[in-house]
# Entry
Amino acid sequence: MTARGITQILNVTDLAESFRWFEAFGWSKLWDWGDPPGFGAVGSGVCEIFLCQDGQGGRSRLPDGERSTDSETSDGNRGVWMSLWVDDVDAVHRRCRDRDIEVIAPPEDMPWQVREMWVRHPDGHVFRVSRGLEHEDPRSPDAPPLPIDRVDVPVRLEARLAAVLTDLAAHKGMFVSECLEETLLHSFEPSGGGVASPHRPEDFDAIEALKRKHGLDYGTHASYRFLEGESPED
# Structure
């Protein structure tokens, strides 16, 4: 068997409430299904989690307004535990603190060479938000230079995508060509069921805002359906 990906399914008490919680956490709602919806998905970068209301797995929900500080209680252990790998654990911690998301263990450097914090979903599911301590940031000014030669390549992009790319490069303090190089090189690296992303959590917030600004309303695989020079009515 060759696995192509794996997606966690979380049992939740209230699907709409969970969508709001994940959006506060920094994820985006991807889709929902049913009338009324009882199943859906959230995503961040290349990662995706399915949510099922009142089914498919266990959960633990404390009474309204009550928060447990004991990470090893039987209540906590009835939920699902997941490792979530990010570029900046402390930035995630600040976001959680600002949005009143329950942090049951603040950021700490662990003996197993990760910096880690624990976050609990209202239904008792726990995210171990981590970053490897030995990871070297290639954007650091201390990283050694790599001599290269650049060449001109004729490139045509969909207009809204080009506008988002231009503004994203400015947001990241890069030239458009550098932003393209960064994105291409990351797309060559497999990660889970997809590919790696060059963007940090705060970059995804900016990307969503830029997509709304420029009306980029299509998804990841839309490029296979692009038909240049013709409108849908033609």
Summary: Strands lie at 8-12, 28-34, 37-44, 47-53, 81-85, 103-109, 114-120, 126-132, 190-191, 194-195. Confidence is low (pLDDT under 50) at residues 63-76. The longest strand covers residues 37-44.
